Amino acid sequence: MSWNIFSRFTSNAPKKTVLSKEEEAEFNREVTKIEVLDDATKRLYKDLKKSMEAMATLSKHQCRIGHNLAASPVLNTEPDLKSLEMISKSVGQIEEHTHELNSQTTKVMVEPMKKFTLIFPNIYLTLKKREQCLQEYTRCQVKVEKYEDKERTGQNLAKLTTVAKKSLETAKESFEKINSELMKELPDFFEGRLDYFQPCFEALIKSQIEYYTKCFKIYAELAPELEYRETVISDEDFEDQIQQKMADIRALSIVVDD
Question: Which residues form a coiled coil (predicted)?
């Protein structure tokens, strides 16, 4: 992610800290892994949605081409081209399978990923609470140290024992509780992504295999109907034929420029 989870909460934080560099570094590593996971999940979610939209668009255009070919007057006048009617039927079948694949993708990947992304805001709220507890803990520690450095008069000792130290104990207890929970649950959550997503990816791959197998079968059945029954000509001869037919069309009086 492009932002730092601590950036919103550290502007007024005391310069001193009750944590060692090692403790803070260990915690930051766990937070970074969560941030990377959050970003990767969101990007994958968006890519899946784009992929589904692209497949639906491709299928839609294939159907349009098939329907246009089926409605073409050429098919009604040329017996040799009647087999092209199979295209409309085939692309219609493929459109149905594409719709099934997208529905299955939504069920096994998109919806689970959407639910997974909803967990992160709660994690960040807990991280914010932990940062606030750390700031309070540090402030109380600094306050106790100030009283300890002052002249040990009765009034100062009373404040130290009755107010400052009690506040410090409360702040320390609150911080250690939430910090301990996070240091246990952040790694557990990160590792748990494997058990959560593996069945999703397996189901997606199986759905794709089924989809492409069906499409292959449709095209395999369609191919013989579209085979050119005369002798196969070279690309050069085919290009010459196209150019000659285009020249014949341009020679017609109805297309001659004035």
Answer: 130-185
